[in-house]
């Protein structure tokens, strides 16, 4: 009986950060995968057309088009799994939350936040556009024993709103969803 050797899984890695590309290359090649490695969304689309991958590892924060746009385009004709990497910075309007560096900027200026304020903002940013309940935030930031302490959360959100405002009384990023919780959204949405 003749056995046919398995072909290695072909992985398309799309990330603009050299360190991440090197790390993924090392990890995936040692496990026997064949790779195409690109730094932009447009290159990802071209490579996927030329050599359809079995798996795509896609950074959401690409320099030319967003990883979301690249993912949507790939999904129009490709059924291979797409694994997305969390972006190092989440941007909503002119608010930027750098999770790894624990830094936030609003309107281009640094915002000084307490650790609890940053953790609250980071949780909202990771769920940008979605309504998160007060209990979800309290459990994530303060711990399960705090899930009934909505007043603590309201005080912190009030402080966050003041610190994030680029002008007094200006647009708010943190929207209250009455009776439910909060949502992080770009001003005007």
Tell me about this structure.
The structure is a single chain. This protein has a 4-stranded parallel beta sheet with strand order 2-1-3-4, sandwiched between helices. A 4-stranded antiparallel beta sheet has the order 5-6-7-8, with helices on one face. It is of the alpha/beta class and 189 residues long. The relative contact order is 0.11. It has 6 helices and 11 strands.
For the residues shown, what is the average pLDDT?
87
Coarse morphology: elongated
Q: Which fold name is given in CATH as the topology of the largest domain? A: Arc Repressor Mutant, subunit A
Gyration radius from CA atoms, angstroms = 21 Å
CATH superfamily name of the largest domain? Answer: Winged helix-like DNA-binding domain superfamily/Winged helix DNA-binding domain
| Beta fraction | 15-25%
Distance between the termini: 64 Å
Characterize the biggest β-sheet: 4 strands, parallel
Structural key phrases:
Arc Repressor Mutant, subunit A, alpha/beta, 4-stranded antiparallel β-sheet, Rossmann fold, 189 residues
Give the SSE map.
Layout: E1 10-14, H1 18-30, E2 34-38, H2 41-50, E3 55-59, H3 67-75, E4 82-85, E5 89-92, E6 95-98, E7 103-106, E8 109-111, H4 115-126, E9 131-133, H5 134-141, H6 150-164, E10 174-177, E11 181-184
Parallel strand pairs: 1-2, 1-3, 3-4
Antiparallel strand pairs: 5-6, 6-7, 7-8, 9-11, 10-11
Provide a short characterization of the protein structure.
With 189 residues, the protein is of the alpha/beta class. The protein contains six helices and eleven strands.
